[in-house]
Amino acid sequence: xxxxxxxxSLLLILLxxxxxxxxxxxxxxxxxxxxxxxxxxxxxxxxxxxxxxxEKVRLYGADPAIIKALAGTGIGIVIGAGNGDIPSLAADPxxxxxxxxxxxxxxxxxxxxxxxxxxxxxxxxxxPNLVNQLLPAMQNVQKALEAASLGGKxxxxxxxxxxxxxxxxPPSSGSFAPGYQAGxxxxxxxxxxxxxxxxxxxxxxxxYRDDTRPETLAFCLFQPNPGRPDANTGIKYMNMFDAxxxxxxxxxxxxxxxxxxxxxxxxxxxxxxxxNEVGPSVDNAKAYNGNxxxxxxxxxxxxxxxxxxxxxxxxxxxxxxxxPGPSSERAFGLFKTDLSMAYDAGLAKSSGSxxxxxxxxxxxxxxxxxxxxPRNGATNEQLQASLDWACGQGIDCGxxxxxxxxxxxxxxxxxxxxxMNMYYQKSPKKPTDCDFSQTATLTSQxxxxxxxxxxxxxxAGNTGVMNKYVSSDKVDQRKENGAVQxxxxxxxxxxxxxxxxxLIFRVNNM
Length: 510
Fold this sequence. Notes:
Blueprint: H1 2-15, E1 28-32, H2 42-50, E2 56-59, H3 64-69, E3 76-81, H4 86-91, H5 93-103, E4 113-120, H6 128-147, E5 155-161, E6 165-167, E7 175-176, H7 178-194, E8 198-201, H8 204-210, H9 214-220, E9 228-230, E10 235-237, H10 240-254, E11 262-267, H11 282-297, E12 301-302, E13 305-306, E14 312-314, H12 355-359, E15 371-374, H13 380-391, H14 412-426, E16 440-443, E17 475-480, E18 483-486, H15 490-508
Parallel strand pairs: 1-2, 1-14, 2-3, 3-4, 4-5, 5-8, 8-11, 11-14
Antiparallel strand pairs: 6-7, 9-10, 12-13, 15-16, 17-18
Helix pairs in contact: 1-15, 5-6, 6-7, 11-13, 13-14
C-alpha cells in the first residue's frame, strides 16, 4: 500500500507540470459597470460571457440579478461594497454579518463569489475618517465570512488607483507615496494574513494622455518599440502594463509585502472620445486590449514576476451611456449593448484560446517568398513584444497555446517565430511585413519541426527536424533574474508516466 501511495504521489507531481487546458484562462476577467439605461438583461449578459474566454467578472456592487444569473457557470465573481457602506461595516460587526447574509449566502456556492472589494480608491478620497474606517470594515467582513465558514474561500480587499505610488519609474524604484503609507500599513498586513490580493487600477491610457510621443503610444499598446531600460536591474521593459505592475510589486517589496498577490481590477482603452482627447480610437482600443489579452495568454508574466499572468479585469464589458465626464468615459466597452462586438479583441472562444485552433496543425496560404523568423541578436524582451503584437492582430496563435502543436518548446524565441511567420503569411508579404522593429528577417529554410508546420515557402523543406529557433530541446529560455527555467518535455513526462503505471500494476499483482 505504501508503494501505491508513493506512486500516486509521484503521478500527481508529474501531472502538476502538464500545461492546463487551453480553455482555462482564469486570469482574464471583465468589469460590468451599470451606469447606463440600455444594458441587456442579465441572462443575455451571461450568455455573452459564456461565448467568450472570459473566466471572471467584477461588479461594482452586489446586484442580485447578475449574481443569480451567473449561478452554475463557474465564472468567478468579484462583488463590492460602496464607499458609503464602509462606515456602518466598520462600526458594527452585525452590519457586516447582515451584508454577508444578504449579498453572499443566498447565492454561494452556486454563484462562484471569489472576492469582496470594500470601497473604490478610498485612500484617494481625501476623507481621513473614511480612510481610518476602511481597515476595521475589512476586518469585520472577514470575521463575518469566517463565521459563515467562508474564511479563505472568499477573499476581502479594497481597490487602489496608481496614484497610491509615489514613485513608479523605473519600475524597480516603485514605492508608496508617503501620504498613503500610514493608511496602507494595516491594510497590507491584513492582506498578508488572509492571503488576499492587493487590487490596483493601472491604465496605460492615462500614461499616454500625459506623454503623447509616438514611442509612448507604441509602448502603451504592446506594439514594437525600442523599450525602456531600468538602470537599476538592467531589465528592458517593452510595454507600459508590465512596467506599471512591476512598479506596484516593487512598492510592496519595499515595505516587506512582496508575497502579497497583485490583481488588476481595471485596465482598458476607450474606443472614442471628444475632439480634444488624445488617444481614444477603435484602432488603439483594439490594439491595447487585444495585445494585452495575447500577453496574458503567453503566460510570460512580468519581468519581476515571470511565469504567471496577473489576474486582470478589463474595463469594461459594455459602454456606460450615463457616466459623467468626457466622451471617453462612456466608450470603454468591449461589446455594444446589442451584444455585438465593439471590435474584436480576441475574446471569442473561436479565437486563439479555443481547442480547435490550438490542437490542429496550423494552415495558411502558401507563399513563394519564404518564412518570417526572428533575426539573430534579437533579445527575449524584443521578441516578447513582437509576439504580443502579432497575436493581437487577428492571427491564429492557438497552436502556441498549451496543448497546441507548436507550444513545445515553451520559449519566447519559438513562439515569436511562429507568430511572426503567421502574421507575415496573412499579410501582403511585403518586406516591411517581416520587420517587427528590425527583430525579424526572411529565410528560405523551413522552420517547421515535428508536428508543428509553419505555412509558407512553397515547399516542404526540411520538416520533421528541430529548427534553430527551437533547438533548446524543451527548455524555456525566458529569463528569471538571469536564470533559465527548465520545463518537462512531453517525451520525458510520458516515460515517467509509463514507469509509474507499470510499478502500480506490478504492486497490485504481488
